[in-house]
């Protein structure tokens, strides 16, 4: 059923109906929540993210919830404002943030340039100074 989302990508109402059906059928799937969050961000409906997170907290286990939160932070960076990304980063615990920033830096070393690597280092420094 997830492949139906790609078919109806341009038809927002149809895509919304598919997500409602998926939430009923597959309650504990992190993939569905991730796809839905991407759908929300693509359509500039960022205010619905909070509702989605609260719904996900009731159905997903802790490990999947952390994965979803990291995914939402990435979506905020890609589609949303940087201010919201910073607010979201403050909610992550130190160990999760360290893992995330390490992988982010490795990615930028492999595929990015020096300025993006420096940006990741600045994020890490600001996170450490806040804690």
Automatic annotation (TrEMBL):
Coiled coil: none annotated. It comes from the Eukaryota. One of its GO terms (biological process) is rRNA processing. Signal peptide: none annotated. GO terms for molecular function: RNA binding. One of its GO terms (cellular component) is small-subunit processome. InterPro entries: Rrp5, TPR-like_helical_dom_sf. This is Uncharacterized protein.
